Amino acid sequence: MLDIKINQQQIEMLQTDLLKWFEKAKRDLPFRQTRNPYYIWISEIMAQQTQIDTLIPYYNRFIATFPTVFSLAQASVDEVIKTWEGLGYYSRARNLHQAAQIIVSDYEGNMPETFAKLLKLPGIGPYTGGAIASIAFNEKVSAVDGNVLRVISRYGNSFDDIGDAKTKKRMTAFIEGILPDAAGDFNEALMELGAVICTPQSPKCLICPIRSGCQSHAAGTTEQLPVKKKKTKQLTKKMEVGIVKQNSCLFFVRRPDSGLLSGLWSFPITETVAGHGQDIKKKLAENFHELNEPIFIGTNRHVFSHIVWEMSIYGFDLDNAIREPVSTSHLVSNQAHTRTDYQFKALSEIDDLALPVAFSKLLDQLTNF
Ligand code: SF4
Question: For the domain 235-366, what is the CATH code?
Fold first, then answer.
């Protein structure tokens, strides 16, 4: 049972005051000038882990490169990832690409128009599905993100833990029960209020359009809400990275199609077991018949959302070793595109790879190698 204290009158105030405010005060964003579901979809996927102000140039570039779902579906996954470069969380770009291909093959290029059908596409969960269905197709369905959870927790003075999946489920059902006919505007207005007025720190209650019905404002508990209990600690992993150099070119591998940084190019990397570069040397034996002893280059650290990599970097200079060509028997088919999973690249060509930051930040350490 949701611990929320809002009566019918406060619900009506929330609906009317919020919508009135949103109509006048909403930010002028490029994806608010359209009801085109394709554009709304792209903007919502970008907004999942990126602030709205930050994503605008990326959104404009993406839409200019792939103006329709057909152009996105026809592009190679590498082109899509390259255009996504800088936004991080690359699985979003891969899912967009895959979903675009499904929309073209199964829906003749038209975005599915219901929440239920949208949920079947890769990368679309309840929040994104709700946002597209309500904003583009005006379906009466909620879109509950962190902003919305914060606003409703405060408005109803709820001390339920918003990090708990059960709270989110109940909160979603509660919002669904109070959605007005203009569900898309109402969802957007809740998100907007959370982004610009009812912010995590120092909410601007004095200028808030729904202050008169806000229960936490009346109770003086705004600063304590929402309740979000701490998650478990990040996992730290010790890793060995292999930098293989030949004729001033560096060796790159494509990461597996699932898991962290899936499908992206990287330096060879493996978990540390024996240490001293022996683990990565063993892994590289898959590609090189004979390697010299690893040269220690340095260490680096990269923090993902749930994992920290503590990386020891080792160099292997093939100019001083017995040269063996990289196997070319690893050509695999990726749906419409044939791709290779290994390649040497000159430093001047590395930009083409859209190398994730976890690896591109190591390049500065290689100047003396
Ligand atoms: S009055 Fe303050 S706490 Fe309540 S919704 Fe508005 S900004 Fe948030």
Answer: 3.90.79.10
Pocket (CB within 6 angstroms of ligand 1): 151, 154-155, 197-198, 203-205, 208, 210-211, 214, 216-217, 222
Residue ranges per structural domain of the chain: 8-224, 235-366
Q: How far apart are CA 21 and CA 15, in angstroms?
A: 10
In ligand 1, the atom with minimum distance to the C-alpha of 211 is 1
CB 197 within 8 A of CB 133: no
Q: What is the pTM of this model?
A: 0.73
Of 14, 150, 151, the residue with max ligand 1 atoms within 8 A of its CB, to mutate for a pocket test, comes to: 151
CA distances from 308 to 215, 234, 259 (A): 40, 7, 14
Pocket test for ligand 1, best of 155, 212, 221 (most atoms within 8 A of CB): 155
pLDDT at residue number 323? 46
Judged by average pLDDT, the poorest of 58-67, 161-170, 310-319, 338-347 is 338-347
CATH number of 8-224: 1.10.340.30
Question: For residue 1, what pLDDT is reported?
Answer: 66
